[in-house]
Design goal:
six-stranded parallel β-sheet; nine-stranded mixed β-sheet; alpha/beta; 352 residues; 15 strands; globular; Dihydrodipicolinate Reductase, domain 2; binds nicotinamide-adenine-dinucleotide; Rossmann fold
């Protein structure tokens, strides 16, 4: 068994730097090298994390025999090629979400992961969150009864990544808040519901703030197109029909006039015995004195809460990561169906 996983990080923008920090605090991993196509950002990251090896071409990093795994944090349009090259070079891969731009790309990546028998995980951090894990236990115990409706939302007031960066151009990102925030909260919600099977979606997507240059957060380190195109949605919502007559309402926004006191991010379950609400974790049920709210006690820490730590342990201990590839592919199908529904203005049925 490996004692320490020797990792490289590809892309040292906002997320890549966070991954490097995680590696620094992970006792079972070492950051060996980085690859970053922008020379200035490459130098800054290498200096900050005291790494002697830094490449501007990621394939040079993949050629290094002492790199066991790579953490990939490049723009979405680069995921397909970088991941396939990394897996083919026999590196294990942790990829920042979303998996891919399209279902076709996602399918191809998963085929290569299966063929090369490498660990390939999408870093869906919300699933690993302590509250999500606690909620899973509560749901599995049957405390909610039958869950017939869920709400998942991630609604920011001014959270548009830098306007004109790859994030706001569909050909590089695959979409706006729906494929970004929406897909991530949906992943946690479906995980908690115990299955990714969705029968049909009816979605809307629109841009109300970005095209006017409003609602920007400053997130992301990539280049800005001087023409500042914005051709993605900054609001996206969907009604998902699940099996057994259950429903899920998804809402996502990069920018909005939602009230400051409203939770930015949350998942709610409505069950026949009780309701459960995340984040924070609370249970709602009828007691002797009417409705009562129970704040759930969280464990102080869970060592796998950080996706980088979870990935490293999964590789070292030969465990299957909590984020399965079939689920990640199904999530991509659901997101694609949402975009198709929004474009067509009608409900779209999913196959299978
Ligand atoms: N898990 C999360 O919570 C979360 C949050 C935000 C973003 N993301 C995802 O993380 C990924 C990176 O996002 P970001 O915000 O760090 O973007 P970013 O623009 O800040 O950084 C991307 C970096 O990749 C570099 N790059 C581009 N192509 C490259 C290549 N071929 N080889 C090497 N380097 C290359 C760019 O120069 C840039 O420095 C995206 O897929 C994004 O959707 C995940």
């Amino acid at each position: 068994m490996l004692e320490r996983l020797r990792c490289g990080v590809i892309g040292t923008g906002a997320c890549g730097l966070a991954q490097l920090s995680s590696l620094l605090h992970c006792s079972q991993a070492t950051a060996v090298a980085i690859a970053e196509s922008h020379p200035k950002r490459a130098k800054e990251a290498a200096d900050r994390y005291r790494l002697s090896r830094s490449y501007t071409r990621y394939r040079d990093l993949l050629d290094q025999p002492d790199v066991d795994a790579v953490l990939v944090a490049v723009p979405n349009d680069q995921h397909l090629q970088v991941v396939i090259d990394a897996l083919t070079a026999r590196k294990h891969v942790l990829l920042e979400p979303p998996l891919a731009l399209t279902v076709k790309e996602a399918t191809r990546m998963i085929e290569v992961a299966r063929k090369t028998k490498r660990v390939f995980m999408v870093a869906q951090g919300l699933r690993l969150n302590r509250q999500t894990q606690l909620a899973r236990q509560v749901i599995e115990r049957g405390d909610l009864g039958e869950i017939y409706h869920a709400r998942a939302f991630w609604v920011r007031r001014a959270g548009i990544p830098r306007i004109g960066s790859w994030y706001t151009q569909r050909r590089y990102s695959g979409g706006g808040c729906l494929i970004d925030l929406g897909a991530r909260i949906l992943d946690a919600c479906l995980y908690l519901l115990g299955g990714f099977e969705v029968k049909a979606v009816s979605a809307v997507a629109s841009a109300r703030f970005g095209p006017r240059g409003l609602g920007e957060s400053g997130w992301g380190g990539g280049e800005i197109d001087p023409k500042r195109p914005f051709d993605v949605e900054d609001f996206g919502a969907a009604l998902l029909r699940l099996g057994g007559g259950r429903t899920l309402m998804l809402e996502s926004a990069w920018a909005s006039q939602a009230g400051a006191e409203v939770r930015e991010q949350g998942i709610d379950f409505w069950g026949t015995k009780a309701g459960l609400s995340l984040y924070p974790a609370r249970l709602f049920r009828s007691g002797d004195s009417g409705h009562e709210t129970v704040n759930l006690n969280l464990p102080l820490a869970w060592e796998d809460e950080d996706p980088v730590h979870h990935f490293v342990r999964s590789v070292i201990e030969g465990r299957r990561p909590l984020v399965g590839l079939e689920e990640s592919l199904q999530l991509q199908r659901i997101v694609a169906a949402c975009y198709a529904s929004a474009a067509a203005g009608k409900e779209i049925k999913l196959e299978g």
